[in-house]
Structures are given as structure tokens and as C-alpha cells.
Amino acid sequence: MKKAFLIIALMLAMSPAYSQLRLGLRAGLSTTDLQVDPKTVLGPGGVDYLKLAVDEAHFGLQGGLVIQATIGKKFIIQPEILFNSNKVDYRITDLDNPGAMAMIKSESYQYLDIPLLLGYRFGPFRLHAGPEAHIFLNSSSDLFDFDGYGQRFKDATYGWMAGLGLDIWNFMLDVRYEGNFSRFGDHITFYGETYNLGEPPSRWLFSLGYMFGKR
């Protein structure tokens, strides 16, 4: 996490002295696209234990601080520090009881998302793209109801982001697409075995922001 803040500080320090620095706030929603397959979870002795599948990915919430350095009139360096919360429902089938109904269990995740965006203005619009770090903060999970469940979250994962923004006075409307380099579900373990559920997740993010000061 300290490295991420250091990178932001270095990028801003490298901006020319005539750059205009502004601070702002941003909040929004995200929708997650998951390409996942059901997995058969093995219990002790290698016997079939559970069938694990994703039932639904809920809307996520995101909000935090925006730092914007304008170079000339067209170019932007824009790091952001955003708290992000998501929730996923899993459909669990107990393979020891073939006649039992599938159960829905939920997990929620909280991350600190730190994108570092480079942008270009044309009229009231902005195009921007750049790398992004996800710093793990916390998780709560109903999957702990099952014997053998564990979590192995990485302290940080990485991805990228690109989008289009519209500036109206001091307000910012943004639509962004986010990709990730880590596979979905790579934190899930049962009896020490990791169960990746699918391809790296992607998200659409829709947000409203407000920048303080004059542009």
C-alpha cells in the first residue's frame, strides 16, 4: 500500500511546474461480469463434497478521493484512492445429500482501489486510461459455515481501467471499463486446495464526482 502512495506522489512530482492541481470526490456503482464454471469441491480423502457455483454478482459501491493534475489545457494525470465494496452470492449443493436443495451463501469484499489514469480533454469530454492496484482490506463470508473452508486473499492485485468522462462545471460524469489480471475465486480454498472459478473478472463503473476549485 505504501508503494502505491509513493507512485502517486512521484507521478505528481514529475508533472511540470505549471500543472494545475485539484482535489475532488467521487462516488458510484459497478456491475461485475463473471465468466465462471461450477466446481466440484473435494473433501477429505478426495471424495466429492460440494458443488460450488456463482449465483449472482451484486452491484458494487465505490467512493473516495480524486487528485487531478492538468498539464497545459489538454492532458491530465489523475490518481484516485477509492474504497470499493462488492458482494457475490454462491450456489452450494451438498453432494453428500443428493436430494437436498441448493443453498445460497454470500461473500462480501472490501478493497482500496488505486487507479493511476492518464487523460486527454476534448471539449467537455475526457478520455482516460491507466493501471490500477486493488489493496485487500476485509472480507466476510457465509462459506465459513462449511467445514474446510478458508481464504487466501493476496495483499494486492492489479488490473487496468479505461473510460470516458463528461465535465459539467465542477461535476464529473464517468463511464469506465475495468479489467483484472487475477482469476476470480483464486482466494477460495477447501481443505487447503484452491478453487479458481473462472476468468479474470471485469467491471463497468458509473460514477459522479465533484472537483474543488477552478479548472
Your description of this structure?
With 215 residues, the protein is mainly beta. The chain has one domain: Porin (Beta Barrel), CATH 2.40.160.20. Helices cover 6% and strands 64% of the residues. It is built from one helix and 13 strands; from the N terminus they run αβββββββββββββ. It has one helix spanning 2-14, and strands at 20-33, 39-42, 48-57, 60-71, 75-94, 103-122, 125-141, 149-151, 156-168, 171-180, 188-190, 193-194, 202-211. An eight-stranded antiparallel beta barrel has the order 1-4-5-6-7-9-10-13. It has a three-stranded antiparallel β-sheet with strand order 8-11-12, with no helix packed on it. The longest helix has 13 residues, at 2-14. It is elongated, with a radius of gyration of 20 Å. The protein starts with a helix and ends with a strand. The mean pLDDT is 89.
Rg (C-alpha, Å): 20 Å
What's the average pLDDT?
89
Order of helices and strands: HEEEEEEEEEEEEE
Strand content range: over 45%
Class from secondary-structure proportions: mainly beta
Order the strands across the largest sheet as they lie in space.
1-4-5-6-7-9-10-13
